[in-house]
Amino acid sequence: MLAHALERIVSLDLITVVVVNWNRRDLLRACLHSLASQTYPNFEVVLVDNGSTDGSCEMAEREFGSRLRLQFVRNTENLGFCAANNQGILQAAGKVVALLNNDAEAHPQWLEKLTTAFTDEHVGMAASKILVWEDPERIDKVGHLIY
User: What global pTM score does this model have?
Assistant: First the structure.
């Protein structure tokens, strides 16, 4: 019963999804579409754009501005993947921050299932299973181990 109560509390918390982009408009569109299809209702997306010149931000705002709780960090130059993720994390309002690459498409229950990892107070980080794009029956990665 207690585990169920904790799961319910965690599931009500805001999650921030940080997506870093640089000139990958079409991949970003698919990524944001997958986020717009999430079953977990309480999340925001911080899109950190590293100075794209392909209309990525304009597309994101036009196509997903009304479907996602979307905020932007717009860099005038490419600061790199790590620095951009750090910018997104600093903008996060969520209790949980999820990093999603712009070339990834999240399963509709990704965020909903991710919250279950945090029902244990000893868990501070979780990683997702990543499937091979060309063969989604094959696993590419299953997280990282950090001691």
Answer: 0.86
